[in-house]
Backbone:
């Protein structure tokens, strides 16, 4: 399995509107560099799925995700809502039986939930994505779950 370095910044929005910023352990996944970003906040996924904010103490996890030209992720799925915004380059995501979608610089979307997919850089330069997980503080549900292939 490839590896991606995550250095997480958790911003917990507590009931009553206050927030708490906490540094979270790094995670290795797919040789893609992801750096924490400060965030603000963001109804259906790219596949038309509705979703709910996870229960428990809410936490937002923000990343700067960098994918080298031609590089592919392994097949994976997200258990929780994941907002993505293309900062530079372009990204093609293969959703198997649901088809492929291309996202260019400036486009934003909520990724499919519990649906296996594979993304890859469609640029001749690095693709940079602002990624935001809408999670809960515990348990940590941020790391994508590996899949055997397309659905």
Residues:
């Amino acid at each position: 399995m490839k590896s991606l370095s995550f250095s997480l910044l958790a911003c917990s929005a507590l009931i009553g509107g206050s927030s708490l910023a906490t540094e979270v352990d790094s995670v290795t996944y797919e040789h893609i560099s992801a750096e924490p970003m400060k965030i603000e906040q963001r109804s259906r996924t790219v596949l038309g799925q509705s979703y709910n904010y996870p229960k428990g103490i809410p936490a937002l996890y923000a990343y700067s995700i960098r994918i080298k030209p031609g590089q592919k992720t392994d097949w994976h799925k997200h258990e929780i809502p994941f907002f993505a915004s293309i900062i530079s380059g372009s990204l093609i995501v293969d959703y198997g039986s649901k088809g492929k979608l291309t996202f260019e610089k400036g486009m934003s979307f909520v990724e499919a939930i519990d649906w296996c997919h594979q993304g890859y850089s469609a640029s001749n330069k690095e693709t940079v994505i602002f990624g935001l997980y809408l999670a809960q503080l515990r348990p940590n549900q941020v790391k994508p779950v590996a899949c055997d292939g397309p659905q």
